[in-house]
Amino acid sequence: MESVRYEAPSVQTVPVIELRGVSKQFLKPTGELHTVLQNINLRIEKGQFVSLVGPTGCGKSTTLNLVAGFEQPTAGSVLSLRSAGTTWRLK
């Protein structure tokens, strides 16, 4: 019997959240710049479960604040379905 191999067609998915080359700096009271995130790339697609894990001060909360729109990146871009005009529905 001959083996038949099926390959699913290539489908380009649209990410729900995407960070492209994101960097974030804050100004210290001394006037120095403090880099919290540098050149971060992250792509989260519909149905994925993602956890941000790391030690205190590594940028987890800053990343979430960028995704939520509470902060703007110093460099790069944060894209989401919300920024594309789609309404999010919680189920």
Automatic annotation (TrEMBL):
What SUPFAM superfamilies does the annotation carry? P-loop containing nucleoside triphosphate hydrolases (SSF52540)
Carries keyword ATP-binding? yes
Classification via Gene3D superfamilies: P-loop containing nucleotide triphosphate hydrolases
* ABC transporter domain mapped to chain residues: 37-79
InterPro entries membership: ABC_transporter-like_ATP-bd, ABC_transporter_ATP-bind, P-loop_NTPase
Q: Which Pfam families match?
A: ABC_tran
* Any one GO MF annotation of this record: ATP binding
Kindly indicate whether the keyword Transport belongs to this entry: yes
Keyword set, alphabetical order: ATP-binding, Nucleotide-binding, Transport
- Annotated PANTHER family: ALIPHATIC SULFONATES IMPORT ATP-BINDING PROTEIN SSUB, TAURINE IMPORT ATP-BINDING PROTEIN-RELATED
Q: What is this protein called?
A: NitT/TauT family transport system ATP-binding protein
